[in-house]
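Tutorial sheet, problem 5. The two components below are modelled jointly, 510 residues in total.
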Amino acid sequence: MLQLSLVDRVGTRALGFFELAGAIATFGARAVIEAPRPPYEPREILRHAYQLGCRSAPLVITAGVAIGVVLSMHTRASLERFGAEAMIPAALAIALIRETGPLITGLLVAGRVGAGIGAEIGAMKVTEQIDALEANAVDAFKYLAVTRIIALMIAMPLLTIMMDFSGMLGGYVAEAATSGMSWQLYFERAFSYISYSDIILATLKTVVFGYLIAVVSSYLGFTTSRGTEGVGEASTRSVVMASVLIILSDVVLVKMIFFFYPVVSG
Amino acid sequence: MNAVRFDHVSKAFGTRKVLDDLSFEIPKGQAFCLLGRSGTGKSVALRHIIGLVKADSGGVFVEDNDIATLDARQLADVRKHMGVLFQNAALFDSMSVGENVAFPLRRHTDWSDADIRARAMAKLSDVGLEEDFDTMPGDLSGGMKKRAGLARAMALDPAILLVDEPSAGLDPMTSREIDELLVKTKQGGTTLVVVTHNIPSARAIGDRFAVLDQGRMLASGTIEALDASEEPLVQAFMRAQGGG
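Model answer (structure tokens):
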């Protein structure tokens, strides 16, 4: 009996999970279909690009510098044993630009922006503001969700470039303090093993991260219920789900990049 | 032609029946007051008119358009002729009060910024909030939010104005001013659908009335007909509110 009840519970959970995944996928697909259709809401997209993108820049840059310093210290500790200190800038650049920069940017934005979108749309839902938009003959889905999705898809690669650059800068500061390496030499060595395809593919990967963050958090905002408690829950779940999806999608995207551009994996 | 018509509308949320075979007609230019205690389905009826909720059975017609059969674009066109004041005003809290009122004008007219601002200011002045154009909704009292919501609902001079509890949270003087504004709006040719449990306010505004209880219509007609109703719940409601 106990075993049956356990199976029931696992089954219910599994069904709930697939139901949620299906609903989010449908929501995301609807956004893709609606995005090319007028009205295009350029003012809202710009406003969200500023709110979600520009306002995330200080966090991303600060984190980038700190990660650059820490990565540089760890890399030095490892490479010193093999007498390969000259490789430190290149190792740092490969780690940052190919993987650490995009992934950390995605997770940071999921935390800051995902929570914000989930809470903001959730609060609008429970205070009837979404109904008020519809009553004003405005497509709330397009006005609230599609604009945020587009804005974040634009903002994410730019934030990733900021993360990469500030990370390299942090790495240089750490390296200059330790070995006195010059600025020119550091960047010459850093980019000697990095190609344009490394930078472009890894950075464009974050367009998908932006899409996932905005879709998940908008969906959870739109489906908020139970008043302020529901708003808090939407906010928290947005961060958790967006972060998990970023990590999982990163695995798939890296595999795809290696498959379609084998030169990058070398 | 009727502005709004309910034809045997029923609606349930889960097992809870909210509207039960509800039928009524609202001729153009009249004020129709839906009365009843809290939780009797008045606001849900209003949401059917806007198309935010769809009936399980029966039809809701706005200017002879069956709301349930309209596609998104057609529904948006119908909604452009309606103004809605929600129970809690539902002001957009990312915009100032003035921008809230200007919002429908920006969306649905090609007026200049100056004209939009002038119209928004005039509508705010109608509800006594001309000083609060740049105030954020979070800094307003409940009653002021309600008035700002009414200004937004009337921004486009809609053919049909739907008002959910216009006097809730207002002091008696402001409540009377809002009633007078709604009467003036009606005299300008606007059809009013007012959800309220405030009988004095309904007497001031309404031409025809309906009393709901548990989603069913207990009585309808003029205020005199309701005062003369022998339905015990209607009598109790009218007396409890100081009517008759």
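Marking note: Chain B touches chain A at residues 47, 50-52, 72, 76-77, 79-80, 82, 84, 86-88, 90-94, 103-104, 107-108 (CB under 8 Å). Full credit if you identified this.
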